Amino acid sequence: MRTMTAPPRPRTRPVRDPAPSKWGYRWQRWMLTPGVRTGLRVGVPALIVALAVAGWASNDANREMIVAQYAQAKAAIQHRPEFMVTGLAISGADEELADVVTELVQVVFPVSSFDLDLEAMRKKVAEMPAVRDVYVRVGDGGALEIGITPRVPVALWRTADGLRLIDADGVFAGDVAQRAERRDLPLIAGEGAEDDLTEALALFRTAAPVAERVRGLVRIGERRWDMVLDRGQRIMLPTDRPTVALDRVMQMEATQDLLARDVAMVDMRNPGRPTVRLQHDAVAATRNASGTGANN
Amino acid sequence: MRDLYETQRAMRNVRKAAMQRGVIAILDVGTSKIACLVLRFDGPGRMPQVDGIGALAGQSQFRVIGAATTRSRGVRFGEIDAMQETERAIRTAVQAAQKMAEVRVDHVIACFSGANPRSYGLDGAVDVAAGVVTEGDIGRVLASCEVPDFGHDRDVLHAHPVNFALDHRSGMADPRGQVGNRLATDLHLLTVDATAIRNIFFCIKRCDLELAGLASSAYTAGFSTLVEDEQELGAACVDMGGGSTGLSIFWKKHMIYSDAVRMGGDHVTGDISMGLQVPMQVAERIKTFYGGVVATGMDDREKIEIGGDTGDWERDRRTVSRAELIGIMRPRIEEILEEVRARLDAAGFEHLPSQQIVLTGGGSQIPGLDGLAAKILGQQVRLGRPLRVQGLPQAATGPAFSGAVGCALFAAHPQDEWWDFDIPADTYPARSLKRAVKWFKDNW
């Protein structure tokens, strides 16, 4: 049932009639496009952050501060005691070589292991002639370990530049100033001498009975050996099987004291016909002796 | 005819694209209000699919995510009268609905009530070549319908094949795959003024939207208010709008007749305004608050203050009794209903097995209307409200929204129309070369 009292006075004002303008409508539709919405939700904050960071970083002092702080943090970590290297431990080298290596690597302890360039260090040591192989590592207890496998010289090699040590592979293993320094090693000489070192060593072993008289081996024409003894004696060995030939000479020495005699050269180049050349004086003496004998 | 065929096919393709995207807008361009619903299609499968019509009458696959109404401007008798004003009103409604939905809408399906709809019943028949009816046969039989000369200034809005007959069997809904020799069809053709369609096209284009479909609001109102049995057995839906009263008759789930009376609620308001000498806005207000069609003794005693709005508030305080108001409203409503009665009689509504009449639209909210309508239209009259659809706001569930809701159902489940079937192949060759050339021109 409706009330009998008068209702509120009806309003007769013109109706407000809001409608979006064409551009307002388009703007709203554009803002409702999914791509634009995502762009606004994600892209705009990202852009603001990027701009703020860029603005802050455009100041030189700020950038330097960042760099300095980074370097400081890096150093703080690298210089922790866990990473420090305090000593050098060289193994496998004699004292002399160890001193040379210590001088070569030039590390001032204590140093952080991040600052050590182990690879370069290893290369530098490996380049040394006396070193056959080397490893460099930071080992337990903060020690820089350098393990050296040295070359073992087996012979001296006389070249135009001087005396050199060579090892069993024929590789240069160091310099020697004088022959007297390494009397224990046999001497070889001549062009291509280092290429056939095995044979040379075998020859030296064969010549053991006259070892104290042997001066060395000379490679002739990169083909065969001459064994030089003191008093200017020389044993010329063939290209093929020189050991056998030398063995025959040693037999002759043992039975007939061949080398103790006044021979200048024993020519074994033709194995079927060993030839002996006498010293110049010996030739005259022989001649005199035979002359005397003839006179008798 | 062929141009229209192409246009409608293009609109169907746009509709498909919109469904693919998942969002589509429904626009009800009415005389008193413009309503916009934004639908989101989630695709089938959320509800268990069953044979036949599915859960929630098959409407479970979409939900309304935005709804807005605005006062209509520039629309008279359901036709666009002032283009700029209508465009503004459409923008207002679409913007508000988009804002509620928080999504941009690009495709819109529009429905409107006016533009002098006129129904034609066509029939056609062809011999079935293969002995079994194929899709092509249906296209051919639809193309064989004799199209009447409805004038060059009118366009076809709907063309529903309502019935198929194969030899002596009639009343088939889907004859495909059936064996027979002669296939006949009945086609319901609804034409409207071409200018009205063109205006709506233009208005919607100016709002940066793309038209994905057009429907008559009498048809869509029937779609949403008539229950399934009524659609099957025969019923009429009377959509009492502001500027025109739409009328659609359904039988066997197809609209078989549609018409419109160019009178509606605005005319009632005009009568009150003239009769009581008050402005239109006051008249509208009085109508909605105190309106009625059956006067009782108590209505003589209920005084309504109408206000003179002369500025002399002390002296000029006129009142009318509610009985006087009813005395003004009733003749006009009777006139509208009698006009509807005449249209129904002309359509042969009394021959349908069931003669249910459903009143809907904003005008059907007048108290006592069902009693008055029962006297004029027949005993089987009820008031109808639109089907409930998911997500529809409470404010948009009233009978005034039956056209818009029906349009949403139409968007989700369009009935087969003539242009959904392929043109018969034998009409192709004459123009196929031209079409190819045109395609090249359009694309390069």
Note down, in words, how this protein is organized.
The complex is a heterodimer of chains A (296) and B (444). Chain A is α/β, with parallel strands linked by helices and 296 residues long. Chain A has two domains: 82-150, membrane protein fhac (Ubiquitin-like (UB roll)); 153-295, Rossmann fold, CATH 3.40.50.11690. In chain A, 39% of the residues lie in helices and 23% in strands. Chain A contains eight helices and 14 strands. Chain A has helices spanning 22-32, 34-57, 60-78, 95-105, 118-126, 197-206, 242-256, 280-295; strands spanning 84-85, 87-91, 111-112, 131-138, 143-150, 153-158, 163-167, 172-176, 187-189, 214-220, 224-229, 234-236, 263-267, 275-278. In chain A, the strands form three sheets. Chain A has a nine-stranded mixed beta sheet with strand order 8-7-6-9-10-11-12-13-14. In chain A, helix 6 (197-206) runs parallel beside helix 7 (242-256). The model of chain A has no long low-confidence stretch (mean pLDDT 83). In chain B, the strands form five sheets. In chain B, strands 3-2-1-6-11 form a five-stranded mixed beta sheet, with helices on both faces. A five-stranded mixed beta sheet of chain B has the order 14-13-12-17-18, with helices on both faces. Among the domains of chain B are: 118-192, 2-Layer Sandwich (Dna Ligase, domain 1); 265-323, Actin, Chain A, domain 4, CATH 3.90.640. The mean pLDDT of chain B is 85. In chain B, strand 4 (75-76) and strand 5 form a beta hairpin. With 444 residues, chain B is an alpha+beta fold. Chain B contains 13 helices and 18 strands. The interface between A and B is medium-sized, with 21 and 35 residues.
